[in-house]
Amino acid sequence: MKATLKKATPNPEHSFNIHKDIGHAILSAWHYHPECELLVVKRTYGTCLIGDYVGPFKNGDVFLFGSNLPHTFRCEQKYLESDTEKVGETIVILFQNNIWGDAFLNLPEISPIVKLLNTSKLGLRLKGVTRRKVGKIAEEMLNESPSRKLINLLSALEIIAASKEYEIISSNGFNPEVNSIDQNRINTIFEYTFNNYHQKVALEDVAAVINMGKHSFCRYFKSKTKKTYIQFLMEVRIGNACRLLVEEEFNMTEVGYACGYNNISHFYHQFKALTKKNPMDYRYNYLKTEERKFI
């Protein structure tokens, strides 16, 4: 996939960029940028690709991406229509990792934040109380003065660094340094997979979209992503299954069929292999977690 370089230029009154995207504006191609990104997801669900990670994202998720980490979020169509009550929103904060200056970042008190930003090069998904605190700070920053926005950005990073309530998303072996030919090929593979994961996908057909033979394609894909295409396809399917389990009122069989599984036993087996839970437990645990937010 060709990861497109994006430039986020703040206006003269600001040293970083913060904005809210709504509806179709939340769509983006596979891209990267030199800025770090703090992303808050609101009222939308879908599948994300972050480095070499594939999986679901949902309303309330908060992510921190380090500099030049490729990522994209594919939302369901119904969250992109501005005339619906469930129109999707995201809050995006883009900032240089040395925004406060090298002298400031060399202070011993700031070392936990420096370490956090280095860790975020693989992508972080926030958890627990930290996720809610940082999401609230980001929401408030939209309407604050420029100086208060800068102070609260530092505060949000300090909260994340101190709590360590996050999971690292990409693997240590992920390497975004690929040439333009590789990027175009991977882009084509990803697009084909996302458009066809719900039906039978043959290796020969995927290989053909980038003009390769089956065996050459398998070697090529693994050399670029550190995983087999079958593993990648499973991650896409199970990621979408996770989303359907928490978002829609489908039964387990319907979820399996909707994600490309004609054999429901195979669906259960792959779901548990990837999530360490069976589909029913996954849905139950998610609903219990959502209930606890309101207690």
Describe the structure.
- This is AraC family transcriptional regulator.
- Keywords: DNA-binding, Transcription, Transcription regulation.
- Pfam families: HTH_18.
- This protein has 295 residues and is an alpha+beta fold.
- The chain has eleven helices and eleven strands.
- The strands form three sheets. The protein has a six-stranded antiparallel β-sheet with strand order 2-9-4-7-10-11, with helices on one face. Strands 6-5-8 form a three-stranded antiparallel β-sheet, covered by helices on one side.
- Helix 2 packs across helix 4 and helix 8 crosses helix 10.
- The longest helix is centred in the last third of the chain and has 19 residues.
Poorly predicted residue ranges: 291-295
| Overall 3D shape | globular
- Strand tally: 11
Helix content: 40-55%
Structural class: alpha+beta
* Total helical segments: 11
SSE order:
EEEEEEEEEHHEHHEHHHHHHH
Strand proportion: 15-25%
User: How much is the radius of gyration in Å?
Assistant: 20 Å
State the end-to-end distance: 43 Å
What integer is the average pLDDT? Answer: 84
Largest sheet: 6 strands, antiparallel
How are the strands ordered across the major sheet?
2-9-4-7-10-11
Q: Brief overview, please?
A:
The chain has helices spanning 102-105, 111-119, 128-141, 146-163, 180-196, 203-209, 214-225, 229-247, 252-258, 264-275, 279-292; strands spanning 4-5, 17-22, 31-32, 36-42, 46-50, 53-57, 62-65, 71-75, 89-95, 124-126, 166-168. The protein is an alpha+beta fold.
